[in-house]
Design goal:
The protein is mainly α. The protein has a domain at 7-100: Serine Threonine Protein Phosphatase 5, Tetratricopeptide repeat (Alpha Horseshoe), CATH 1.25.40.10. The chain is built from twelve helices and no strands. It has helices at residues 2-31, 33-49, 53-66, 71-83, 87-99, 103-117, 120-133, 137-153, 157-170, 175-187, 191-204, 210-229. The protein starts with a helix and ends with a helix.
Length: 230
């Protein structure tokens, strides 16, 4: 059934691509397939901003039909699948993008391993591989944040703190870094320092993010416990 559905969706993508090519005419063909793929990838992002998720998915699928090796389209479709909690799809698309050398895909794939699979050694391996490829500071920061997260789960607190500090230096606007650092400091028995991190976690974390919503609850609990002691 699953294979039949996949084939049917692929066929739909073919027809949609053909119809669109006819619409844009020969000028569209002259742009070349990679350029058309980029057009549909960008269209997918615009559809997402407009909350048209079905159109978003169709646009990314068209981009991949036109250019199966589009790193950004693979990554974006993986991200959309994750948003829709289709984790099998997300993992597959992130892995494909990572195999094509897209550093951000390594970070997101590793985060799936941490959050859902609890496979911390595999996550660490992926993150180090991603760091070898990353050039953008925000991507490096995301990789380091997730590396700190994996080391936290392994109770390797000193290493976790080192990676999280490095992530913060590159990009101080990642809320998860504060939440993770608070847990690391607690593990190191530095509760006073952890309290300040919990405050920052509560201030900046987004309850719409699955992992951050959990940490918001933890932050409130920890801060309330400290307040009760006083």
């Amino acid at each position: 059934m699953e294979q039949a559905a996949t084939a049917k969706n692929h066929q739909k993508s073919k027809w949609a691509a053909l119809m669109l090519m006819l619409t844009v005419g020969f000028g569209g063909w002259q742009l070349g397939l990679p350029e058309l793929a980029l057009f549909f990838n960008n269209l997918g992002f615009e559809n997402y901003k407009a909350h048209r998720l079905a159109d978003t998915q169709a646009s990314y699928q068209l981009a991949l039909f036109l250019n199966p090796k589009s790193q950004t389209a693979l990554y974006n479709l993986g991200w959309l699948c994750e948003e829709l909690q289709d984790l099998e799809c997300a993992e597959a698309k992130y892995r494909q993008a990572a195999q094509l050398g897209f550093p951000a895909a390594y970070s997101n794939l590793a985060q799936l391993y941490i959050l859902h699979d609890k496979n911390y050694p595999a996550a660490v391996h992926l993150l180090f591989q991603g760091l070898k490829l990353a050039e953008d500071d925000q991507v490096k920061s995301s990789l380091l944040k997730n590396l700190g997260w994996a080391r936290l789960e392994q109770r390797r607190y000193s290493e976790a703190l080192q990676h999280l500090d490095a992530a913060t230096k590159l990009d101080s606007a990642i809320p998860a870094t504060y939440c993770l650092k608070a847990q690391v400091l607690e593990g190191m028995k530095k509760k006073k320092e952890a309290q300040q991190q919990w405050k920052s976690c509560l201030k900046y974390a987004d309850s719409q993010e699955f992992d951050e919503d959990i940490w918001i609850g933890m932050a409130r609990q920890r801060l309330q416990e400290e307040k009760t002691k006083k």
